[in-house]
Each structure stands twice: as C-alpha cells, then as structure tokens.
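@channel anyone free to eyeball this complex?
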Amino acid sequence: MNSAWSRRSFLARTGLLAGAPMIVPSRVLGANAPSRQIAFALVGVGGMGLANMDRLLKLRDRGARIVAVCDVDRVHAQAAAAMAEAAQGERGVFVTGDFREVTRREGVDAVVISTPDHWHALPALDAIRHGKDVLIEKPLTHSIEEGRVLVAELRARNRVGQTGTMQRSDGSFRYVANLIRAGGLGRIERIEVRIPANNMYCGATWSPEPVPEGLDYDFWLGPAPWAPYTSQRTHYQFRFILDYAGGQTTNWGAHYIDIAQWALGMDDSGPVAVEGFGEFPSSGLFTAPTRVDFTATYANGVRLRVRTRTDGILDGNVRFIGEQGWIDVSRSKLRASDDALLKVGGGPAARGDSGVAHMADFLDCIRTRARPVADLAIGHRTTTVCNLGNIAMQLRRPLQWDPAAERFVGDEQANRLLGRAYRSPWSLLA
Amino acid sequence: MSNASSPSRPAAEARAESDPLRSQSAGGRMQEFKRSPDPWVEAARMKFGGDRTLASQIQTLMFDADPAQYPVLEQKLLDLLGRPDLGEQGRDFIVRMLALIGSAASVPALAALLERPETSDVARYALEMIPGGEADRALEAARAHLTGAALEGLLGTLRAREARRTGVLR
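replying in thread with the prediction:
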C-alpha cells in the first residue's frame, strides 16, 4: 500500500506482504497484446466499489490489475487496498482520498468510478482529460447536463467509457432486446417497468452529528450544497436525497429503463414527452420520491410507464406488450405470453455473472478501442429518461422533450432543472 | 319545522374548569382556533434537521405556479432574504426557490450575497439559473471581489452559463 495516510502503521497492523512495487507502465508491454496488463484505479470503494473490485480481481488472468484506490472514507480506502494487495499477492496499491491523485497518475490506464451519484461526473471528466478510460457506475450522472458534458468530453478525447449497467451483458436481457428489435412481438404498444420501493427510511426530523474519524466529509459533499453531517446522509442512503442522487427512479430505473431504450433502438435518442405523479417526502432528510409513477412517450407512440412495485421484492422488471403478445424479463425470471417467444433462435444464452462479463467487455474495449456494450452515450440517454421522470413528477404537469436539443420545449422552469450550480471550488466545465 | 327550540349556546360559565380558553371572549376564542403559522416565515427560520413540511408546501407552490404568478412569489422570497431571523437552512431553501422562478428582480439581493465569500455559493445556486444580462453583469462584477475557492466556483458558473448559451449545453 502506498499512501499518505498512516501507511506504515496500517501495513504493520495488517501484516501485508513486502515485495516489489507493482505499477508497471502498461505501454511497455505492447498496446493490444492479450497479455498486456491494464492498470486500474478505483474511485469509491464502498459497497458498489468493492463489487467492482471483485470483478476486476476475477479478471486477473485477462490482465486486469488494481494499482490505486481512492475513497474519502479512509477506512474504506485502506480496507479495499489491503484486499486488493492480498488477492494480487503483492504490495504497492496506491491509496488516497483525493481522486485527482489517481485520475492524473502515471501508469493508470483506466478508472472505475463507484462513488455516490453526485460524484460521478467530476472524477470521470478529470480521468478522461488526463487520458484514462473510465467505467462509471449507474446512473451515469446526477444531472442531464453533466451527462452531456461527459459524453462530449469522451468523444473529443477519444477515450473508452463504459456505464455500469451490467444487465446489458446478461443473456436474458440481451435476448429480449434483440427479440423486440427484430420485431418478435410485432409493433410494440407499451412498456411497463416496475422498480423497487425505497428500502431505507427516516423520520420527519434529524440531528447533525459529529463527522466520523477518517471521513473527509467536505470532500464527500463535493459539488453538492453544504449541509451538516448526519450518518444517514452518506453511505448507501445518499441515494434517497436529491442533492446526491435521484432515488429509486435513477437507482433501479437506470437498469430497467435501459433495457427499454435498448429494445426500442433509442440508445442515441429518447422520448418526446413525459408526465408523472409521484410522491415525495414532505419532511425529513430523504427527498427522493417514495412512490414513482411516470410515463414517457416516444415519437412512434410507444408509452413507457415506470412505477414503484409494492410487493417488497428488491428487483425490477420490464414488460414489453406488442401486437403479437408480451414478454417480461427481470434478473430472476423470463416469461412471455407464449413459450415460443422464449425459444427464438434457441432462446437466451445461459446466464452467467453479468457483472464480470460487463467488466470484461470494458477490459476488451480498452485494448481494442471499440465502444463498449454500454458506452457512456448510451448510459447518458438512459439516465436522461430517469431524470426526466423525476422532473415530471416534481412539476406534476405534462412536459415536452426535444431529444435532439436535449431540452424541454416551452417550459423554462423545467429547463432550470437540467443542471445545477456547483459548490465551490468545483466546476463541471474546465 | 320542529316546535323544539334550538339548543342554546352554552354560557361561558358552563365551560369546564380545564378548558384553557375558558376566560376568552368569543372573538378571542375564534382567534385561537384560527391561529396558523406563516409558512413563508417558518421556511425562513428553518434549521438543518428541523421539520420542513411548510417549506415543502412552498416548494410545491413554486412548481405548480403559472409563470404569470412568479413575480409575486419571487417578491415574497426576496422579502424573506431580508429577515433578521433568517437561518442558514432557510437561506439555502430560498435561493433554491429563486433558482426555479427568479428573474432580474432577484439579482440585486443575490449580488449582495455573492460578494461575501461565506454566501457566494448560495447566491450562485440561484444566479446561475437566472437568465439575462443582469445576472451576467452581477457575476462578472464579483470577479473583482472573490478570491480562492469562491472565485473558482464563480468561474465555473460563468463557464456553465456560456456553455448553455453557445457551447456544449446549448
């Protein structure tokens, strides 16, 4: 472990291995050689960050190597670095709380960003501007404007960018998307998406608390408005606070709306209208909707309705209803109005670990410079639909959306919700 | 129609000893029953962690209002910004509402907040979203006053406004 944070004492506590420093500049090994190691840095190593680290460690035999870890929670960062070093059998993983020390670091090829949503865009942009490829967890960005800037920068710098919507790398979801695109249900009439209800709760009031030792809370807030620390604000629960995320609309919507966008051939576009009537907490720390219900309408007339499910299952599903039947897919089930719809071309491929497959796709694309299966532009368009839903539910009036201009038509207030000013010193645009 | 006479209103003396309004006049009693907080004032006084129910109702007003109603709502928000009991959370809430409906009329009050490093961020939360030359000029003028992180934030806001006019966010 190589860190400004109590490195020696932590090594002493954990008894980690001594050995040669592990960072080998990948360019000396041949640009596209399968044996060439790809040096990864991880920004954000809480729950999702550790899942992504595990995926990378499973790809060691394909050349993935973790060389740096960043988290504003020092406990998370040091624990993750120790896990990576133990798994890789060598010391030298660089540890920091400042993402710029990895996004600008020599010897890092790619950066995996698994921070809270309000911290997706900035480290990704810094990485891209410093010649790195990026994988960014879903939802791609916190705001629609952030997504637009991110995609423009990715293209201008010719970098590889994968969105963490790993259902794109799952056999069943791919089968359904391909079936719909091939006309297997005839003309699609409507799409029904269900997403889980909130799985965390809070009361009507809360109290500021002391910031825990090891958490750089000001850095955690980053571009979001200042607010005092309270334990329910940060790890995991951040997703229920609109200053940092979009609730289950963007958390699960990013997965299931993504399949609808894919199947409709809307990866580079989106709906033309949106309307919704959700419910939002009127008090308390959480501000994201507790009940989601919005409908996005595409130019061809297809209506996509997204609703909160009420059965307590922590998964979503997407059902396509066409003139020749319906098909419904989730992570655990694939059903259709007619079994024949499940056997077209031999049926879906066997389900494996889609998370690892998704990371492997990113790894391959780093080598080949091809666009990954969930290129950032695709993730941006999916996240846009999620954010349109949240905006429509807040404004409670029908909105017209221009997917080419990426602006609302004739609603200035709605357009003011496409982005936000950042807390200093952070800036979206360089 | 019944021959029965209407039940007579109980005399004040008939009220229970435990009735805290027992000694009130009829008018005073009605005033007590009609007592209501002013949601605008309560929103301005709001503290971090406190009940934000009334502020949420004001936010709903902002979302639901016809644009023709914005000037009245905007003035009510600006009045709150001048209250001596305005709290940090209340000010944060008010500028967020101005970000939704604010116009050139809000610029002088926000420009005053922009000049002070401790409030420049919250001023930008609204000013960045208010279209027009008045907001542009206020932001440009603040370049001369701000330094360090506050200046960096200001430059970010100027870049964002430019990008919305002519750049990647147009």
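from a first look: The radius of gyration of chain A is 22 Å.
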